[in-house]
Amino acid sequence: MGNRKDEHVDLALEQRSGITRNDFDDVRFVHHALGGVDRGSVSTAVEVAGANWPVPFYLNGMTGGSERTGAINRDLAVAARETGIAMAAGSLSAYLKDAATAPSFRVIRDENPDGFVMANVNATVSSDDAQHAVDLLEADALQIHINSVQETVMPEGDRDFAAWPGAIEAIVQRVGVPVIVKEVGFGLSSKTLARLAELGVSYADVSGRGGTDFAKIENSRRRLGDYASLVGWGQSTPEALIEADASTSPTPVLLASGGVRTPLDVLRALALGARAVGVSGHFLEVLVEEGLETLVEHIRSWQDQLAALQTMLGAPTPAALRQQELILHGALLEFCASRGID
Ligand code: FNR
């Protein structure tokens, strides 16, 4: 298990150089030269899961379960503490199977006693185990990842998915904290979002295509690389947000992640309807390539740039970005046409 977690980190980092263009580049803001406001009137804060986050982006679920990933979690937790941003653990499945891995996750809370911390489990755990994961981290919220594409390509992955909705419903009813259901980079369709709302889920992270690709990661762990055709599967993050916005069914409050590279991508996701935006691969790369101090500076710079861009765009709050006029291009327009979205 520990070795698999280490491999995920290495393979995710290997992909980074290939992540240059994605669907966020097909989303432009109409520029209004007299549209700006005063910096002093701008707030970047958002309310998520009953808490006030100072900025609308967070460190999304990644890792834990081995010595090396425990050290990564320690650094990420210090960065979260120093900058005040929320942070999710990677899947606590390892801990639920082997309690000896607890320190590699618990470090997230030990380093950041007052921060907003999310635990993370898959949709096969019992509701009691989900609560154990929350308890280990004294977590403020619980992420449940749904990852049927990853499991399919993973040699040792699950092949039974029918019980997932029932498991999610049971966890929502059992745990004492808000639940966020998330993909891991293949997107949530509006049909899935409507189903999650029916199951009582209050937050969903669409986590779409455009950044870390787990089909590629798991395929390179297979001896024959048999599933190469699934690389690039799923809806991109902007596609998922646009489809959710056009849907007439109730949906959970939307979070977004997948392919976020810059503060401008954060603003794009907010303008497309996300309450807050998760970042994984990019921040991991900054940490591993350039170290903890640079990651802290980098996150502070994003916080600063977000406020500056909201000022320029005339959006006093992240929610006000929903009123921005957007121009969509290329593949995103094709997606809208094929899904019957104006
Ligand atoms: C992940 N991701 C992830 N998600 C999750 O819910 N549980 C997990 O254990 C992991 N593990 C994991 C490891 C590594 C090394 C990475 C890079 C990512 C998925 C992550 O939360 C996110 O959904 C995707 O990575 C898409 O976002 P980025 O990487 O494109 O910003």
UniProtKB/TrEMBL annotation:
Catalytic activity: isopentenyl diphosphate = dimethylallyl diphosphate
Keyword Isomerase part of the UniProt annotation: yes
EC category name: isomerase
Keyword NADP among record annotations: yes
Positions of substrate binding: 4-5, 150
Binding site for FMN: 61-63, 91, 120, 182, 207, 212, 259-261, 280-281
This protein's name: Isopentenyl-diphosphate delta-isomerase
Domain FMN-dependent dehydrogenase stretches: 160-324
Entry binding sites for Mg(2+): 151
Molecular function, one GO term: FMN binding
Assigned EC number: 5.3.3.2
Cofactors that this protein relies on: FMN; NADPH; Mg(2+)
Protein localization: Cytoplasm
Pfam families xref list: FMN_dh
Record keywords, A-Z: Cytoplasm, Flavoprotein, FMN, Isomerase, Isoprene biosynthesis, Magnesium, Metal-binding, NADP
